[in-house]
Amino acid sequence: MAETCRFVVWVDRSSESIFGAASNPVNRDGALLLFDEEEPARSECDRLNARSSNSYMRYSVKLAPKPAAGPR
Fold it and tell me: Exposed, middle or buried by CB within 10 Å (0-12, 13-18, 19+), for 18?
């Protein structure tokens, strides 16, 4: 699966938030927070969740397809 997918870190906001439920990919320096392997993605989620003081937001990992290689 890792050959065809990447692991993206998402932030999930609870419906109990005053802004309502939402889910978005995490951007860092203008780019999606992507990993080729699941373990580093899960480690980053754990780090972000431990650092967050907001009980309405949680970080998670979702799969995203890798873009197809174009002609060279």
Answer: exposed
